[in-house]
Each structure stands twice: as structure tokens, then as C-alpha cells.
Design a protein that fits this description.
Elements: H1 6-18, H2 23-42, H3 45-48, H4 51-55, E1 60-69, E2 75-86, E3 92-98, H5 104-120, E4 126-132, H6 141-155, E5 164-168, H7 174-188, H8 211-226, E6 235-239, H9 243-254, E7 258-264, E8 267-270, H10 277-286, H11 294-297, E9 302-305, E10 321-324, H12 333-341, E11 346-348, H13 357-366, E12 369-371, H14 373-376, H15 379-393, H16 399-423, H17 430-449
Parallel strand pairs: 3-4, 3-5, 6-7, 6-10, 10-11, 11-12
Antiparallel strand pairs: 1-2, 2-4, 7-8, 8-9
Helix pairs in contact: 1-2, 2-5, 2-17, 5-17, 6-7, 8-9, 8-15, 8-16, 9-10, 12-13, 15-16, 16-17
Length: 451
């Protein structure tokens, strides 16, 4: 699908000229704008007030150096980022990613997606994202602590419980959040809900750890049921083996699916008897080892090494359902076609923008179910929003209360996406529905608030 509307084209062309060196960001913007043509044409106010021209520019971009001392006493320097993209419906909200691939384009793409994802949750949260090109892999706890303290020493001046509330993303788990929260509290002399994903002993929410993976499966389940199907008896392939992948495995197994393959950046495992999420959790969260270690627990499993520059063979494993939970653009057009050829009935995104435009076009041409990340992986930020509510109330809810709210939110997001798609003549196109439903709430708030 290509954009025909003159106004949308002019905004996109201007953005391409200004941000030519930011491919991930431009990809994310183009994917959203393609869906918005019927909305823009139905209401002239969006063009008159140049809502699109404003929504594609972040309200604020902060970039800073992060000096820290490694275990050998050497001073290292990384780059830190926070992109505060849109605060029309609430304080900026979005994760921090610590990974060598982090640059401004990646953070802007994530922040832009976050605007619509947060809007879809129905909670009062604007869109933001941040992080650093620091790699926590292979670093000692002391090195990670010193990095996090230095990172927060700068970041603290730009965030706050009613301004911007970061959370975790790739490379930022409970350990990193704890170190950053401790530093914020020390510098600001205040104990507030400034970060989400906190430990349970100091203001965290039950079910937050599980939320993105559980939410993904609640969304997928709603979409499957709406199309007369379910997880029951389905073979599932999940990419990644981090937080999202682990809990997606747990929930889809509970819903009757069987996870037969999972991966990390070194390779993937196949276990036809079903991969136990508890073993992956032990390998990744306790031992911090590679997924190949699974063979020590289950010798009958198969391990395939990933070769740099070669296609990822994970998507050639025959399955009914694919849950990409690793990173952006991990499924290319060839991978999508391999999934479809092997009988895959649905791709539900757990990572942010894991499918390339070519892959999405292939899903749509084949007529298989597709759930875009901004809708299907919104469970994490939804539960972060619930953590903010608990912090504001100075109360903790039970696991069951939070999980029930999460399930309700995810089913509500699916219903909103399906309804928006149908209203604008694209019935069944959940990608378009997510973009439209997410956009309308933010655009309406922007119209009310003036220029």
C-alpha cells in the first residue's frame, strides 16, 4: 500500500529530507501514515491544524554522554538518549533500551510507536523512549551499577512521576531499574513512582514482569477466537528468550499451545515435546547463559547456530503460530513467505516492529492473521500504567487483580482495533485499526490543546 493523499505525502517527504539517516524511524512513520489516509480525508481539521506534521516531530530530544569506570579502572564512555515524543494524553511513558545497536533512529522509532501503543491502552500516558548503546552482556554487577548511576545522574533532570516515567526494554531488567531508582532517589531526595518495572519490595507491581508476554497471548487469543480459532493444539515458534519470550511461552502453553522453538542472538533450539519456560528462565535470568545450555537440561532437543549474514533459520521451523519477541525487523519477506509456506495461520508481534514492510505485505497477501506490536505488545506498558496507579494510591494490588485488568485491557485493545478497521472500510486489518484507534485519541487531545 502506498500513500496517495497530498498532505500526508508532503509531511513524509519533508521528514525524509530532514531525517534521511534515520531508517527505522522513517519506516515506523510511513507504516502509520499509510493507515491514516481515510481518517485524514474524513476530517479536514487534522490537515488544517497540521496534526500529522506535529505528531511526527518529538516534543524534545535529549542526548548525553555517560562516563563510567570499568572493573579494571578504565574510564568508558557511552551515549545516552531520551526522546520525549508526545505528551498530549499524559506524561511521557516508555522504556529504556541498553544495547549496542541503540542510536537516535532506533529511539525515535520506538518513541513514535509508543505514542499509539500507550493511547490504545486507554490509560493516560504519552509516548517516549530512551536508552544507551551500552551493552550489559558480559559486564559485572558492579560495572552495570556504575553505568546505571552515571546514566541516571543526567537523566534525572529530565524525568519525574508527572513528567516522564521510564521503564525497562531490551537490556534493562529488574537489576538495572533498581540501580537507576536508587540513584534517582539519592539525587532528588524523593521516593516517587518515577520508574516502572521496580522490584516488589520498593513499589513494583505484581504481574509486571509477566505483562508483555501474557498480554501478547491475551491479544492473540482474542484475535484467534474472533476468527473461530484458538491456541489449543497449535505449534508455536517464539523468537528471543528474554522477558517477553519467556512469559509468552508460559501463557500460550497455559492456553493449550505447544512452544517448539525459541532463540537468542547466537542460535535457536527446537524441542518437539514443548519447551519448558522454567528452564529458559533459569538459563537466562539466573545463569545468564546462552540458549544452547538448554541441551544440558533436555538432551533430545536440537540446537542450530546462527551464522552472521545468513538468514535466520528459526522461521523455517514449521509452526501454526509465530510470536516474534526478539527485536526490530527480525522477520524479512523471505522469512514471512517461509512461515506461510509451512502453514502458519498467524503472526502476533511481541517485539517492537519485528516484521519488515515486505513481511507485512506477505502476511496480508496470504490472508493470515497479523497483530502489530503497537497493539499486541502493549501489555507491558499497560501494566506499567497500573504500577503508576498503585504508586499514586500508595497501594499494591494482588497478582490476580493486575492480571485481570491486563486481560481486560488487551481484549479491549483488540476490540478497538477491529472496530476502527471496520469503520474505515478495512475490516479484519488489525494493523490499520491499531494505527487509527491509537491516532484518534492523541489527535483529538492535540486539537483541544491548541498549537
Amino acid at each position: 500500500m502506498s500513500i496517495q493523499n497530498a498532505y500526508l505525502l508532503s509531511v513524509l517527504d519533508g521528514l525524509k529530507a530532514r531525517s534521511a539517516h534515520e531508517p527505522e524511524f522513517l519506516q515506523a512513520v510511513e507504516e502509520v501514515l499509510e493507515s491514516l489516509e481515510p481518517v485524514i480525508e474524513a476530517d479536514p481539521r487534522y490537515e488544517q491544524q497540521n496534526i500529522i506534521g506535529r505528531i511526527v516531530e518529538p516534543e524534545r530530544v535529549v542526548m548525553f554522554r555517560v562516563p563510567w569506570v570499568d572493573d579494571s579502572g578504565k574510564v568508558q564512555v557511552n551515549r545516552g538518549y531520551r526522546v520525549q515524543f508526545n505528551s498530549a494524553i499524559g506524561p511521557y511513558k516508555g522504556g529504556l533500551r541498553f544495547h549496542p545497536t541503540v542510536d537516535l533512529s532506533v529511539i525515535k522509532f520506538l518513541g513514535f510507536e509508543q505514542i499509539f501503543k500507550n493511547s490504545l491502552t486507554t490509560l493516560p500516558m504519552g509516548g517516549g523512549k530512551g536508552g544507551s548503546d551500552f551493552d550489559p552482556k558480559g559486564k559485572s554487577d558492579g560495572e552495570v551499577m556504575r553505568f546505571c548511576q552515571s546514566f541516571m545522574t543526567e537523566l534525572q533532570r529530565h524525568i519525574g512521576p508527572d513528567t516522564d516515567v521510564p521503564a525497562g526494554d531490551i537490556g534493562v531488567g529488574a537489576r538495572e531499574i533498581g540501580y537507576m531508582f536508587g540513584q534517582y532517589k539519592k539525587i532528588r531526595d524523593e521516593f516517587t513512582g518515577v520508574l516502572t518495572g521496580k522490584g516488589l519490595s520498593y513499589g513494583g507491581s505484581l504481574a509486571r514482569t509477566e505483562a508483555t508476554g501474557f498480554g501478547l497471548c491475551y491479544f492473540a487469543d482474542a484475535q484467534l477466537r474472533d476468527n473461530g480459532m484458538s491456541f489449543q493444539g497449535k505449534r508455536v515458534v517464539i523468537s528471543g528468550s528474554g522477558n517477553v519470550a519467556i512469559y509468552a511461552n508460559q501463557k500460550c502453553t497455559q492456553l493449550g499451545g505447544k512452544v517448539i522453538a525459541m532463540s537468542d542472538s547466537n542460535g535457536y533450539i527446537v524441542d518437539e515435546n514443548g519447551i519448558d519456560h522454567k528452564i529458559i528462565k533459569e538459563i537466562k535470568e539466573v545463569k545468564r547463559a546462552r540458549i544452547k545450555t538448554y541441551l544440558e537440561y533436555v538432551p533430545t532437543a536440537k540446537y542450530v547456530e546462527t551464522v552472521a549474514g545468513q538468514p535466520n533459520g528459526l522461521w523455517t521451523v514449521p509452526c501454526d503460530i509465530a510470536l516474534p519477541c526478539a527485536t526490530q525487523n527480525e522477520i524479512c519477506e523471505a522469512d514471512a513467505k517461509a512461515l506461510i509456506a509451512n502453514g502458519c495461520i498467524g503472526v502476533f508481534e511481541g517485539a517492537n516492529m519485528p516484521s519488515t514492510p515486505g513481511a507485512i505485505a506477505a502476511y496480508q497477501a496470504a490472508g493470515i492473521l497479523f497483530a502489530p506490536a503497537k497493539a499486541s505488545n502493549a501489555g507491558g506498558v499497560a501494566t506499567s500504567g497500573l504500577e503508576m496507579s498503585q504508586n499514586s494510591e500508595r497501594l499494591s494490588w494482588t497478582f490476580e487483580e493486575v492480571d485481570a485488568k491486563l486481560k481486560g485491557i488487551m481484549e479491549g485493545i483488540y476490540a478497538a482495533c477491529a472496530a476502527a478497521a471496520e469503520k474505515y472500510g478495512m475490516k479484519g486489518n488489525i494493523q490499520a485499526g491499531a494505527n487509527i484507534a491509537g491516532f484518534l485519541k492523541v489527535a483529538d487531545a492535540m486539537l483541544w490543546q491548541g498549537i
